[in-house]
User: What shape does this take?
Amino acid sequence: MTRTILIRIASLIPLVILASFVTFWLLQLTETDPAVVRLGDDATEEAYELYREEIGVNDPFLVQYGSWLANAATGDLGESWHGPDQVSELISERLSVTISLALGGLFVAVAIGMVAGVAAGVRAGRPADGMITAVASSGQALPNFWVGILLVAFVAIPYDVFPATLYTGPTESVWNWLLSITLPSIALGTSAAAAIARQTRAAFVRVLHEPYIRTALAVGLSRRSILYRTALRNACIPVVTSAATLFGTLLGGAIVVEAVFAYPGLGNLVLVGIQNGDLPIVLGFVFVAAVAVALVQLVLDITYTIIDPRTRVS
Amino acid sequence: MKRRLAGTEGDSTFVKVAWGLIILLGGVAVFGPTLSPYDPNIGDFQKLLQGPNGDHWLGTDNLGRDTLSRLIAGTRVAALAGLEATAIAIAVGVPIGITVGFVGGTIDRLVMRVVDAVAAIPALVLAIAIIAAIGSGLGQAMLAVGLAFSASVARLARGLALAERERLYVDGARVVGLSRPNLLGRHILPNIGGPLVVIATTVFAAAIVIEAGLSFLGLGVPIPDASWGSMLTDAQRVHRNHPWQSVPPGIAIFISVLAINVVGDSLLRRRRGESFDHPAGHLEPVIVRKQGEHTEPVREPGRVLTVRSLSVSYPETTAVLDANFHVDQGEVVALVGESGSGKTSVVMAIAGLLTPPADVGAAELSLNTPAGDLSLLDVSRREQYGWRRNIGVVFQEPAASLNPLQTVGRQMTNALKRAGGLSRREISERTIELLNAVGLPHPQEVARLRPDQISGGMAQRVVIAQALASEPRLLVADEPTTALDVTIQAETIALLKQLGEERGLAVVLVTHDLGVAAQLSDRTLVMYQGRVVEAALMADLVASPQHPYTAELLESVPRNVPGVRIEPRIDHLTTLEVPTAGCLYAPRCPHAADVCRQDEPPLREVNGHLTACVRADDLDLAGITRNPGVGP
Assistant: This one.
């Protein structure tokens, strides 16, 4: 088991490095001049050149990338072009918001989606199955930020339970933190929950057509036991596999949803960064997103090997 | 209702509506400026934030602009966004995927690593990075979205190209000398079309949502242009007092994404060809209807199973027509015939495992158990479960017949628990005992293994052990040796024979292999196109067949190689038409005469056999004097 985990970790590292490389290369395409971002329009050419030398943008591409990566490995994502702040500090201040929302959304998606999908799957072919499937098909088409806007307009503002705009960190008050991420998580998770529900239901139906279900029936296992022991676990496998991709989507969605709730997350940071032409922030943001996705992927891979022992490396 | 919601056929109404909506939205996108009642970008400051009214059907926004007009303008933006992103994703992803899939080797591995890395960055995050690099705007935003999705398109295209390449090697197209561009054009591109359309719908729908999201953040269409996303930005500023403002653009996004998803799903279903019209699968077998005249069952001592007038039909075909037989304690009855003869339908009907759309009926289907007589006709689900517990079933595909996620021991435990009345300790003892009985060496260790860790032959032994768990009096085995290696086949046959004798089981064995039947069975029923055409003691059947089809089967048994498939005479099969009258075998029968083409012949007794051949008395069919499969 440890070996399996180590192998997964080893395969995720190059993925993250490659993702950062692609982004680094992409941002080279820009015409933004860091010196102008930092020093404004009216500095002297010498001053500009001095700054460019100082931050190393005159170096060859690979040298620049190499030193960025070496620093990134130690947690140093460089200095913002726009101000004296460290990118890693700016990001870590705001990471909690975005990650809270993305994980909250994932929780909503998996919890509601799996329950609804299993509820439909165990009633496969019956009216309740058709209803759940129809609701899920519609739910999947709901854009998360619109759900967010509606939740603010019709829940947060009229009823004084959930905050409409005020984020509380988990270190300040766990209860208020939970309250503050509830509505955004629902907004974020609704469409994903619908997708998971449909996927779970489809996996369930596919499993019910497998020969081993017939064997279980022939052996005399009860409907209950076949559904909740044999079928459920087999049906979970494809759902867990796809949840990592889903987390990526939710992380992207969190950027938009936090704008709806005006939470001070990474989205806000990166939007201001884009307006200012502050590319190190954008780069750091993409890197952190890739790392977060990779970590969730790792956790899910481990879950996956627990559910499906066939995938263990021995 | 059930079918309409969960089935595929009924879905077409939804799909039609969805297509209609897509065409409508497309029309609005194309003819938007002509349809628009007002200029979407010019507001009337006398009419701020109105609700729906006669002049402004959907009201006005915070700058007094007509909401409907802005919605129409936004439709064009959404359509363009979807088209651009989809086109870019395909234009970039398909060539990369096909090329690396086709070239293979190191290039493939390297490129796919990069593709994986790009795919690891969430689409919206990548889009934001690209916008940061090349500036904001609708075109840039959709370039970004297109590139983000090109990774998944490339993966798909690569997979298809790889599969196609494998197939081509098998087909020998390359040996024949087709050049690579030729292969691409002729084989790969046509096959990639279907899956591509499906993924295109996914990208299109995602692009609409992401465009709206980026425009909502101010990274999409420039102010003051209308996009559904930017309309929501405006709406959000005032939603405390004017919640209506968020409704029209949100509904627009919702409806268009929903319509595209519904169409995409229908395309996907059609392409997969998986309809799952009966989503409960194996879980809800059909109930056998009582049909025909009712007579009191005759009680013969030692009788285990009685089948009278069993018929199985499917919407298009009749799988079994009027099968009658019985099995006594300690007796092995074989059902023999080629694929499609209905023999599997017979045993699965007996086991109560046939699923819809099969329609099963019988005059009698009864089982004599220690607890009394059971009938399978018109029973409740609960009674059907009870019936099945009295029958052990051995399936054709042993590996697929075991739950892949549970150890052998665990599955044995489940089966034994259902059999009832055993303590935990007794269950584990019985597990080992049964695994031992089916000839598995080291049963303790086998119990700890999962199905993927054991061979097919071992898996079949486990399936047999499970079938014995409830101590049934009847064992039905559907082609138990077909999926196994030749050497394992012989061992499995020996095992079934031994178990049947030791435990006094009544056995129904289905096989296409007369050699297997000859080694195991006491009596044999030969089936052809759903009809029993001959029934006799095995020795008699082999020595002097009374039906030409039996003779044909005997002829095709290799005399010294047990377990080789009967190859039906292909030349007959390919040209055969099912006759509408007379003997079904007639078109294939070397002895067919005019009399054979008149009425369908009933089973009758000739020389101690039951045969459905009208000419049985006249024919002197060749049998085999020595037992086939025993030696030259």
